[in-house]
Design a protein that fits this description.
With 245 residues, this protein is of the alpha/beta class. It has helices spanning 21-34, 59-67, 74-77, 88-94, 101-112, 136-143, 157-170, 190-202, 220-224, 229-235, and strands spanning 9-14, 39-42, 45-47, 50-52, 55-57, 80-82, 117-121, 129-131, 134-135, 147-153, 175-182, 208-212. A 6-stranded parallel beta sheet has the order 2-7-1-10-11-12, with helices on both faces. A two-stranded parallel sheet has the order 3-6. A two-stranded antiparallel sheet has the order 4-5. Strand 10, helix 7 (157-170) and strand 11 (175-182) form a beta-alpha-beta unit. Mean pLDDT is 95; it is low at 240-245. Bound molecules: adenosine-5'-triphosphate and magnesium ion (MG).
């Protein structure tokens, strides 16, 4: 399955759940908006909602919506939001629902018609079941976007990053870059870990987009300040300049 029109932007995956995909996605949306692009976040599948301003909504959906340049409804950013914070296929089954692959592509097509660039946040790690016969890696394959890998800097992250890079390549997708994100205030041997990640992922053609420290307020602007504008410009260079007529 593929969307009707080729998409522009990136698909953000992570070495695991809770590694900073939403913080980095929001920072990318912010950076793109600051650069003049009509950026839009998309969270195709989200599990766990809370009542905000009288509406049940997922936190990631809200964060991506707030960081986007394009004005969108919660349902446009997150077409499949389930109540329970657990594995998405289980969250869907608890509500007697299934995650409809064609409906996701329809939703992303509708957004792509209005946005210049999309930042799509995956769910959990790269290979998360979304139904009996498909998973989030299949979804990334459907979208055909370059993949950005968020590496949660903790013990074990090198192995998780390299396994993910292999899985991305096995799907025929491009690993366009990676971000090291501090998931705790201090990680022992962080510089040595980052040096190894740089080397091993660069060998696979994936440059480092930035190393984000543990921040007291990880707002989109604060996180974006730790991303490399030159590497980001290259990553998004296939998208025509917002300043070109
Ligand atoms: N650099 C950072 N500094 C401080 N806190 C951070 C940082 N990165 C992430 N966090 C916090 O860690 C938690 C997990 O981050 P985030 O929600 O972005 O992860 P995720 O990978 O999107 O998780 P999920 O798999 O649930 O979508 C959040 O509370 C977030 O605010
Ligand atoms: Mg998230």
């Amino acid at each position: 399955m593929t969307p009707h029109t080729p998409l522009r932007g990136c698909f953000v995956t992570g070495t695991d759940t809770e590694v900073g995909k939403t913080r980095i996605s929001a920072a990318l949306l912010h950076w793109l908006a600051q650069a003049g692009w009509r950026s839009a976040g998309f969270k195709p599948v989200a599990a766990g909602t809370s009542l905000i301003d009288g509406q049940w909504v997922n936190d990631d959906v809200r964060a991506l919506r707030d960081a986007s340049a394009l004005a969108m409804s919660n349902a446009e950013v997150g077409p499949f939001q389930f109540e329970t914070a657990c594995a998405p296929h289980i969250a869907a089954a608890r509500q007697g629902q299934r995650i409809d692959r064609a409906a996701i592509l329809h939703a992303v097509d509708a957004l792509a018609a209005r946005a210049e660039v999309l930042v799509v946040e995956g769910v959990g790690g790269f290979c998360v079941p979304l139904g009996p016969d498909w998973d989030s890696a299949d979804l990334a394959g459907d979208l055909q976007l370059p993949v950005v890998l968020v590496v949660g800097l903790r013990l074990g992250c090198i192995n998780h990053a390299l396994l993910t890079a292999e899985a991305v390549r096995a799907r025929g997708l491009c690993l366009a870059g990676w971000v090291g994100n501090s998931v705790s205030p201090a990680m022992p041997w962080v510089e040595e870990n980052v040096a190894t990640l740089r080397l091993r992922l660069q060998l696979q053609g994936a440059p480092c987009l930035g190393i984000v420290p543990w921040l007291a307020e990880p707002s989109p602007a604060a996180v974006a300040a730790h991303l490399d504008p030159l590497v980001l410009t290259t990553l998004f260079s296939s998208i025509s300049s917002p300043f070109a007529s």
